[in-house]
Amino acid sequence: ILCTKAENSRLVSQIDNTKLAADDLRAKYEAEVSLRQLVEADANGLKQILNALTLGKADLEAQVQSLKEELCCLKNNHKEEINSLQCQLGDRLHIEVTAVSSVDLNQVLQEIRCQYESIMETNRKDVEQWFNMQMEELNQQVVTSSQQQQGCQKEIVELRRTMNTLEVELQAQHRMRDSQECFLVEIEAHYTALLTQIQGLIDNLEAQLAEIRCALERQNQEHESLLDIKSRLECEIATYRSLLESLDGRLPCNLCATKCELSTCTPCKARAMECAAPVCTASAPHGVRKPCRAYGPLSRILVKICTITKEIKDGKVISSHEHVQPCYITRPAKV
Question: How far from the centroid of its chain's Cα atoms is residue 148's Cα?
Fold first, then answer.
């Protein structure tokens, strides 16, 4: 039994160690899973950022394309204006052909062309400068937004780390609570088993007390019945004594008869514990003289007093002893 107890304790310790190792592995696995989830979340965030950057790049490209289209439109408008002006100038020239030309129209047209080209160049420079300013502002916004995004991502990572540590601590607290609850359940089961054992002992003791009470009641009843029998036997003995005394008063005053009576009659005292069965037999004694003519020969009555002694334990009779005591009673018979 001691070896099996030691083996059981060893197995229990091994099971506890395996449970602790399993808990540690489970915690590590959960930490790795949480890290994987964090990495996946970071990758998803980076994908979202990449998508946002691609969308921003596409928007910027669309804006550049729109600006290029606007520039082309402006160029076309300028060309149309130049063409219209040239047409107007051509009409004027056509109108003024008849007059004497005092001004060199080619030079004028060249100057106008130079002016318009200078205007176009300035407009182009202005548009390029505005475009460059817009691009610089957008790049600055992208840089600031990327920096803010990196700062937010760092804060998110730190918050996730703190959340993971808090989750690990919470799981440790939950495991501690579960272990305490299991310990409490074991203690309750142990004490309930002890209470059931104590209750069983109490029930057994109550049953034994009930049996003892029943046995005492039976013994009291038997004792009362024995006392009744004793009282009845004492009454019978008193009656027998009264009869003997009355017989002794009736007998004549003869010494020989008195001697015979003293030699043949022995008084006896009977005590009965449970029951008494008197058996009376009349017999004529031998060698008894006739003391007087008025009375016949003396007759003896044999009385047997049975005393039964019983030893009772737990309501059962262990031993029984019966004692029979004979007693002769003499009385004269009338002629």
Answer: 52
Cβ–Cβ < 8 Å for 303, 267: no
Q: What is the pLDDT of residue 294?
A: 40
Which sign does the torsion angle of CA 21, 26, 27, 33 carry?
A: positive
| Cα separation values, 155 from 150, 160, 308, 333, Å | 9, 8, 106, 139
CB-neighbour burial class of residue 251 (10 A; exposed 0-12, middle 13-18, buried 19+): middle
> What type of residue sits at position 163?
M
Q: Cα–Cα distance between 67 and 69 in angstroms, integer?
A: 5
Rg of the Cα atoms in the chain: 70
229 and 276 in contact (C-beta within 8 Å)? Answer: yes
Task: List Cβ neighbours of 88 (8 Å cut-off, separation of 6 or more).
Answer: none
Q: Is residue 98 pLDDT above 90, yes or no?
A: no
Q: Which runs of E-coded beta strand occur in the chain?
A: 280-283, 295-313, 316-334
For the chain, the distance separating the N- and C-terminal CA atoms, rounded to the nearest angstrom, is: 94
Q: Name beta bridge partners: 281.
A: 302
Q: How many residues does the chain have?
A: 335
Contact 303, 280 (CB under 8 A): yes
| Residue whose C-alpha is closest to residue 85's, from 124, 128, 121, 117 | 117
Own/partner pairs, 6-13, CB within 8 angstroms, 24+ separation:
none
Q: Which two tokens stand for residue 275?
A: 């029951």
**Alpha-carbon distance 320 to 316, whole Å?**
11
Residue whose structure tokens are 């059931």: 196
pTM over 0.70, yes/no: no
Which pLDDT does position 128 carry in this prediction?
84
pLDDT tens digits for range 113-136: 888 788 888 888 888 888 888 888
Report which DSSP code applies to 96. T
Asked whether 306 and 298 are in contact (CB, 8 A), the reply is no
**At CB < 8 A and 24+ separation, what contacts does 60-69 make?**
60/135, 60/138, 63/134, 64/131, 67/127, 67/131
Residue 186 tokens, joined: 């074991």
